[in-house]
Write a structure and sequence with these properties.
With 198 residues, this protein is mainly β. The protein has two domains: 65 residues, no CATH class; 131 residues, no CATH class. The chain is built from no helices and eleven strands. A seven-stranded antiparallel sheet has the order 5-6-7-8-9-10-11, with no helix packed on it. Strands 2-1-4-3 form a four-stranded mixed sheet, with no helix packed on it. The two termini are 29 Å apart. The model has no long low-confidence stretch (mean pLDDT 87).
Amino acid sequence: MNGMMGDRVKVLVDGADVTAACANQMNPPLSYVSANQIASYSVVAGVSPVSSGGDNIAGVIRVNTIAPEFSDTDSVNWRAGYVTAQYKRVNDSQAYALGASLASKQFSLSYQGSFEDANSYDDGHGERVLDTLYRVQNHALTGAVRDEKQQLVVKLTHQKIPYQGFANQYMDMTDNTSYGFVAQYQRELENGDLQVQV
């Protein structure tokens, strides 16, 4: 995949084929997913299998953010949570992330959110690299129910980027807001499995 960009690499996020909306690749597919939301990923370089679709010459990046966790109890209880904070001096970057989940044997509910704010950074000579500042926040709420044979998952996402600079184009992306909805249904059948996703 080295040296290939944009549309030459197929990116699947939760099974959906996502492409950049901007010809300058200012909003690549993985920019819609925060790192703390990724449950698993896989990379296939070169020729990809039919199951990953066609229309690519470099390979496939598959990212999965849907991975509901259930517990062993009948009642809904606190399952897990985390809070993180990070600071980088080079661009005065501040990053915060929060996650929490509740679960029972049949029900799962989780939230993941992140916020990051950064100024333009200084290069190795101490010179300010203009137009490299940004601010972004990501939110994801995932709910799931299941029984012995089937499972239904619904995920809602929201991303807000008030501003983001691009030094290579000397132009800014302003007020980029996106909403997402994913519904996934799985059922065990006698001769196989059924999976439907919208």
